[in-house]
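Exercise 3.2. Students should predict the tertiary structure of the chain below and write it as structure tokens, then compare their answer with the key that follows.

Predict this chain's 3D structure.
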Amino acid sequence: MSEDLTRVEIAFYPEHLNNWLRFGAPDEQLDLDRRRSLALFRPGRVFGYVRWRANEYGTQDWRFTIVQSAAPSLMLSRVSGVSPGGDVLLLATGNAKVKRALLQVDVLEAAGFDVAEVSPSYYRHVHNRIAASRDVTPYSQDQHAAYLAARAVAS
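Answer key:
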């Protein structure tokens, strides 16, 4: 396993823990056992990661994070379940904010976008608008085309 890969913990224990990828295709997946696996991403990949935890009193923690994987030599934000970390584009915690963030991903998919290819700047915009309890500006085909063109020139 390459040291440059970002490792994401996937786990499912009914009624207690559910950590899963909302979007993003891992470059590799390793099954640890029937309830746990690791998704591996090369640097530059964008993925949505949901972490949910509950106990006998109900939901204790619910987070949705959109992360861009990066080389370990760069400054990375630490994210639970993501090793060594990544560039956090969006972080929503709590029932209402997570639902709003997941709804925005649904809206992007309904508009025909591959959500793993959407501009990282747009996800930062969504993060800020949700944090401020404001309406999110829709992502346009023109924005997407401009992002893809800039990315092609940079590579």
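Discussion points: Residues 6-154 form one domain. DSSP finds three helices and eight strands in the chain.
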